[in-house]
Amino acid sequence: MKIKVLGSAAGGGFPQWNCNAPLSRAVRQGRPGFSARTQSSLAASADGARWVVINASPDIRAQIAATPELQPAADGPLRASPIKAVVLTNADVDHVAGLLSLRERQPFVLYASERVLGVLAENSIFQVLDPAVVERRRLPLVGVTALQGPDGPLGLEIETFAVPGKVALYLENKDAEGFGTAPGDTIGVAIRPTGTADKIRTAHYVPGCAAVDGALRARLDGSGCLLFDGTVFTDDEMRTTGVGEKSGARMGHLAISGPDGSLAALSGISARRRIYIHINNTNPILAPGSEAERTVRAAGWEIGVDGLELTI
Ligand code: MLT
Ligand code: MN
Fold this sequence. Notes:
This protein is of the alpha/beta class. It has helices spanning 22-28, 60-65, 93-96, 114-122, 214-220, 237-240, 262-265, 291-298, and strands at 2-7, 41-45, 51-54, 83-87, 108-113, 134-139, 143-149, 152-162, 187-193, 203-206, 225-229, 274-277, 302-303, 309-311.
């Protein structure tokens, strides 16, 4: 199985269009070691020819342009795409806005939880993906789904699981407990060649996660490749960098550091590779040589970057 990290940044990307904080400024100025990153997305393929995109980011057009595997073959038909399916892990803007760029009557199968399919159904702009052309299929909250393209099985299966998270920002109900978050608002996925029993040949992709409990830790233990929520390094970094008031927790993302952070919560699990993705533009791991970057690397984590290719 091949996996490509199409976008390793959180919502906003790196640099973010209106951000003039030191990290965004550094990457905009081309400071050595700083890499621009597009918004959160992954692609996977069992055969190198037919691909599933997991999360359709607002940057998908640029991501396809940077990824020859996702472009029509030079000798292919007049309208064609190797993208045969799209899976959504939540309804956040950084994960669904790219669907609007996938119009033009190109068949693929769209998979999401019932909650997320409901959000798409309620927003008429997503009708640019005519359900007669782009079939929408419901993912179970917990369970295995053999992925299909418009022409049949893709040779990949995903196992979906609910993770603690938060309803999309634009759907928050200020008066409801947990802002109205319900099961299915945030899921994680395990992806592997169909029928693979071996966990070491499975990748786990969790771009949004509010907490790691024992069940999630056990599920991720033994992974062939863990791609995990690296939104913020410290819970209050938006405030301390002066760009905003929201904590990581308020956004539905656990921090990397701290007693309840992902470094501590996932320490001691075995995973052949562990990679932080969905990295916010305030996160100091984006600065080469920073203490945060050294801490993460010393703990055996990699820092996701666009174009990273993994064979699992
Ligand atoms: C998130 O991951 O918290 C969201 O993508 C934030 C946003 O909507 O910008
Ligand atoms: Mn996001």
